[in-house]
Amino acid sequence: MRNLNQDNITDAVRQSFAGTPDARLKEIMDALVRHLHAFARDVKLTEIEWSQGIAFLTGVGHITNDVRQEFILFSDVLGLSMLTVAMNNDKPKGCTEATVFGPFHTDNAPHYALGGDVANGAKGIPCKVTGTVKNLDGTGIAGAHIEVWQSDDEGLYDVQRGDLTHAQGRGILNADTNGAFHFQSILAAPYPIPHDGPVGAMLSATGRHPWRPAHLHFMIKAPGFETLITHIFRDGDPYLDSDAVFGVRETLIKDWTPQADGSYCLDCDFVLADKRT
Ligand code: BEZ
Ligand code: FE
User: Fold this and answer.
1) Ligand 1 atom nearest to CA at 193
2) What is the reported pTM?
């Protein structure tokens, strides 16, 4: 391993991982080295560009804390998060599709009885959400655990508002014995992903916008079924075809129907896949 040059360094680095005891780790490290070196060769990476890349990743690390995960945001805007979701959630036909989790879920959302108002003071046009959680045969799943979270009409999640002391726009409910649920919330609005850090700078340097189309997040769990992490998008949203994180699936776009009193209704059913054995 001396006098390595641009022609033989890749094999030497791969060889250095050849003794990795864990077979999967060995496979991942070998592929990482091959693809990373191929990328550098492909673009003929200069030393200045290498330094800029390191500075970018350093910035991503510096802005990351308990409530701001810039590495996940970087993965999201590169489509890596959605690619990973798509590769690992190939559900049977008829099941509700999964999409990105995003950084705004919290573990301690308040519980509500069916019919409760999960907005809990979040500003927005009132919207009633109804639906049923079913299995592939169409039978309702009694008591399914449903978590929902969304931004307010200014496009902010409660966790982005430093002045808030209670949860808004998020809640946990249980479906009834027929798998049906209903709750009150607000109309979802499009919003920009956090873009005041290195990922935002990368988006603007590349002429991309940070916007996500309006959506309501769901995480649904029931014993014997795969957990479903998904959103319902709002039909007609201007960003459906340019989601900054590539999460839109046609089957997840629904009508959010205006009512005579100015409020909205959303009806959305979910079909869970049986747990893989
Ligand atoms: C979200 O939908 O909450 C989200 C997803 C990816 C990046 C930022 C936000
Ligand atoms: Fe979101």
Assistant:
1) 8
2) 0.93
